[in-house]
Amino acid sequence: MSRLHVFAALGLSLLLTGCATAPAPITTHEHAPLLPSTLFPGDAEAFTAWRCSPDQGVVTAAAAEDELRVWSTHGAWRLTPAVVAGGERYEQGELSFWRTADGAVVESPRGRLMCQASMRRLALTREQRPGVMFHARGNEPGWMATLAHDRPEVLLSLDYGSREQRLPYRVIQMDNEAGRVVLASGRGDTPFELRIEARACFDDMSGEPFPARVTLSVEGEQYRGCGQGIAP
Question: Rounded mean pLDDT of the chain?
Answer without folding.
Answer: 86
